[in-house]
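To: structure desk
From: M.T.
Subject: fold request, one chain
Message: Could you run this one when you get a chance? Sequence is below, nothing fancy, just the single chain.
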Amino acid sequence: MKTLPRLLALALLLLLPAPGLAATDATGDAVGAEVERRLAELAERTGSELRGLVSEGQVVMQGRVHLLEHSLRAEQLVWQTPGVVDVDNEIRVVPHDETGDDAIEREVRLVIKGEPRFQNTNLEVGVLQGVVSLRGLFQDPVDVLALKHRVASISGVVHVVIDAHVVAGVGPRALEAQELA
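Reply: Done. Structure tokens follow.
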């Protein structure tokens, strides 16, 4: 008879949501409602069309945005939603205007030239149908992410691919760190 209480306790544990996951309430999926709220706020601010399909903490984001940066921001917001365990970003970038690849490349080079942390990266830049490819050496992994977001805010960019090699201990920041040590 001692096994019956243990089985009941085990069954109750299996019915409880995992730690960090929101429970589904009687009026619908709490995670889904929060994802939709966050995406709706971003869509209103950016003039985008965004929606999230949610099932058991897995989110498929769909819609259209005018800047790649808005898609990246939407994904970040969804990942920050309690209860989300996986995100599939299927948002399409549809720029307001038809910016040519040459114009996009010029803008990318201006970004690189305007930021001291990107100037010693020896970046190779390529653009084909709005897809920006960057390859180079970086001193800090944070610089890779910063560059991606800066490039994603350029009109006409639909995707960014970065082949980054992070080399610690090279360049001005490494020298500053050695001086402080």
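Reply (cont.): The mean pLDDT is 82. Let me know if you need anything else for the meeting.
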